[in-house]
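Researcher: Next entry: DUF1517 domain-containing protein (Thermocoleostomius sinensis A174).
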Amino acid sequence: MHKKLFGWIKPLLKPVLALILVATLVLGHADGALAAKSGGRIGGGSFRMPSSGPTYSSPRTYAPGGGYGGGYYPGGGFGFPFVVPIFGFGGGGLFTLLIFIAVASFLLRSFRSIAGSSDYDSYSGAASPTVSVARLQVGLLAKARGLQADLNRIAEHADTNSPEGLAQVLQETTLALLRHPEYWVYGGSDSQQTRLEAAEAQFNRLALTERSKFSEETLSNVNNLLQQAEARKALASSGELALPENPSEYIVVTLLVAAQGKLELPAVNNDQDLRRAISQIGAVSSDRLLALEVLWTPQAEGDTLSAEEVLVEYPDLKLV
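Model: Predicted structure:
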């Protein structure tokens, strides 16, 4: 029985083994092909809570007979400014009573407003402003090598330790993108409004998601700390320099912006939508800009990003 079964299975062993070997090789190459590529990064900023507003003290009231509220009263001792006149121990009782009622009403309204406001930050005692966290991504044909050169230059010379410097980086990056519309292939945008205390976590989550798509950051300028990996060139399997002119190879640029107030980017469905989104995010002023990340891949010379990698790593992008 066993021999008969083995004789039936034996002819199938070679085809099955061959299929397993082919699948292993294909998947192995696929993993290599879909591996993240080199990336560049420019960024900086701060999510500091706003300084607490001016402190308010109870208004001073002049007590008849001399002194400010809480001061010395004729007849000996220190007393409460309102209680003494109310009970007739001094003049102006009605006037002081009205002031007392007004102050009490003001304090009551203030406490109710604080307790009922969702914008109030219990830690700092200050109102928490609205912050927009926006992401814009552009996929370009690999022929747009001039864009990579622009981004490299910006990274090497940018001041990423001040709001003014970050605003300049944002403007130069969006201008570089607007100069290459003939290479636009993919686009995508999204933006969310949140409170300041939650904005940093949201921004960091998006930044980590995008950075995790790189195998290494070969050029980085974050908070004026410039880091650059040793120059390398991607080689083809034959050992020759890989050519970037293949029309099925791409460059993907990602902009992450945290800005005070509302920043709503248009949904990207065509090149006109993409142009509006680039212009809108690039117009954020330095006094609104809290944090910025400019990420692009590939960064290293000769490194490439295939159409399959774009589809796998950036599934939300749309053809424009």
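Model: Note for the record: The chain has two domains: 36-47+128-319, 83-121.
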